[in-house]
Each structure stands twice: as C-alpha cells, then as structure tokens.
Write a structure and sequence with these properties.
9-stranded mixed beta sheet; 4-stranded mixed beta sheet; 323 residues; alpha/beta
C-alpha cells in the first residue's frame, strides 16, 4: 500500500479520550475468558502500532484488571495520562453466550474524565466514554474547547443497551458531531440512530447533514462492502473493502478508525490550527487515501482473532510516519 506523504512536521501526540475495560466472555459451560477492550483504547493501540505518538485519558482502577490493561497499553507504546487510575474498580463488559453462540451483554461501568494534559495535538473520542454521564458531559466540553484550536474526531460506536433513551442519545451524538472535524460511524450506528434500515442514498444524506453541522469529513463503514465517504466538496464516493478470510470482526471498526487517523496524520491534516486549516482545504485523493488505509487496517484485523490492529510494516508503509 502506498503511504501518504506528510507535508508538515509531525504534530504533537494524539490524545485519545474514553473508556478502557475488560471484556468477560462467559460460555454455556460456565467457562470464562477475559480480554482487554474498549473502543477508545483499541483506537489508541492501533495508532501506536502505526508508529504515532499517542496518549490515552481513561478511567481504571489500581486492581488486577487495571494492571492487565496497563501492561497491554505499555506493550503497544500508549502513554496513560496522569490521573487515569482513580476508579474504585476497573470496568467490565460481560458477554454471556447461549448454546447457539448468541450473546447477552451486561456492563459494569464507571466512567469519569480524568484531568486532560495540555496539548496541541489531535483529540479523538467516541463510544461509551463520549456519552455516558457523568464523564460524557466533560468529554463534550473538552471536545468543544479543543475544536477552537485543533482537530477533533469522533466515532459514535453506539452501545444501545447503555442508552435506552434513543431520542436523547441521538441529540447527544449530534452535539458531539457538531464540534468534530472528522466523524466515522458504522451503518449499524446510523440505522440505530435513525430507528430504521437505511439504503446507501439515505446514509449519504445523513452524512451530508452531519457535515452541514460541522465536520469536514464523514465516513460510514459498510461492513464487507467497504466504506461510504462524503468529501468536503459534497461528493460522495464508496470504497471497497479488501477481500480477506474473516476470522472474527472484533475491533474491526476501531482498526478502521486508527487507520483513517493514521493516514490523515501522515498527510499533515490533524493537529493544531495549521493542520486544521489544511484539513478544511483538503480535497479528494488525499482524504480517500486515508480512508483506504482505514480499510486496509480493518482487513488485517478481521483476518485474525481478537482486536489486533496492524503495524506499519503489515500495511506496507515506511517504518516512520511521513518517510
């Protein structure tokens, strides 16, 4: 895959804000497995594996599960921001499987926003941490503040079980979209927010409405079909997914998000005020190339078990961003 040429010096480290947790899988025979999870955590790990400096502002405890999360992040090269380890217990998401393999989910989550470091780098957030109170209120405030001087990205990654008030969730998602420069959602997100199935034309209409509210780039992933992109010119394009043998889809959307951000970072389109200005002037090919990197990262992830995003070498990129 051809790398994107960075036109400016590397920006400050990307700050990812949101939940980190442990996924607990309970099988029909009562056996249990635990894996590190959380959408923002996965995005941070994906960026680090693609050689981008990244820190994660999260909320975990100084317990055994928190230690496992810390080791996972340290191994990837993600820096946990100070004050992120004040939770009473590390959050969990439990998936109880029946004999058919269908899962029933329950969450034990405590989300609060730690103090955020001063930085001029890009800010990314999404999923549970961006919405769930009380921390979600502070995340919106942080997004709005950051948007005045630097770029912001957002992935709704809705968890319907946690947000039974669909109308309220729709309004809160819209408020976060309005202060973002880049938004990525899945077709499942959009259909849940709309309350019905959507065809591609209707998906494009939703992305157009989002861009009218603020973002310069809006992308909807379509699973095995690829991604629908609304470019700053208003032009719509659909990019095909890579053909691979799928092992599982765990972490696929997060890998796409980190690949997309990686492409934009390499192109000098994320970061402080200058990068924000370049992003809002950017056109077609450089943005499509970044989406292609997201698709490539997602393809590598679904081809192996678990949320295991690729390295630069696996994507055929230069060993250092922009080189």
């Amino acid at each position: 895959m051809v790398g994107l040429r960075r036109r400016q010096p590397a920006p400050a480290p990307t700050l990812v804000v949101g939940e980190s947790l442990v996924d607990v899988v309970v099988r029909p025979d009562g056996s249990r497995e635990e894996h590190v999870g959380g959408s923002p955590l996965n995005v941070a790990v994906g960026l680090a594996r693609l050689a981008h400096p990244v820190s994660l502002a999260t909320h975990l405890a100084r317990d055994a599960r928190g230690a496992v999360i810390g080791e996972h992040l340290a191994e990837a090269g993600v820096v946990i921001t100070p004050g992120s380890d004040t939770a009473v217990d590390t959050s969990t998401a439990t998936a109880t499987l029946d004999e058919s393999g269908a899962a029933t989910y329950s969450f034990d989550l405590d989300w609060r926003l730690p103090p955020l470091p001063e930085t001029t780098g890009h800010l990314h957030t999404g999923s549970i941490g961006a919405l769930k109170p009380p921390g979600g209120v502070d995340v919106l405030s942080a997004m709005a503040g950051a948007a005045r001087t630097r770029t912001v990205s957002y992935d709704p990654n809705i968890r319907p079980d946690l947000f039974p008030d669909q109308e309220l969730a729709r309004d809160e998602v819209a408020r976060r979209i309005a202060v973002s420069d880049v938004v990525k959602a899945s077709d499942e997100d959009l259909q849940w927010l709309a309350g019905r199935s959507l065809d591609d034309n209707e998906i494009a209409d939703h992305l157009r409405a989002w861009c009218d509210a603020g973002p310069v780039l809006a992308v909807c992933t379509l699973g095995a079909r690829g991604a629908l992109v609304l470019l700053p010119s208003g032009r719509r394009t659909t990019l095909r997914a890579h053909r691979v043998e799928v092992v599982d889809t765990v972490g696929a959307g997060d890998a796409f998000m980190s690949g997309l951000l990686s492409g934009l970072l390499d192109a000098g389109l994320l970061g402080g005020a200058d990068a924000k200005s370049r992003l809002h002037r950017a056109r077609g090919q450089v943005l499509s190339d970044a989406v292609e990197r997201g698709l490539a990262a997602s393809a590598h992830t679904v081809a192996r078990a678990g949320a295991q995003p690729p390295t630069r070498a696996e994507l055929g990129l230069p060993s250092r961003p922009g080189r």
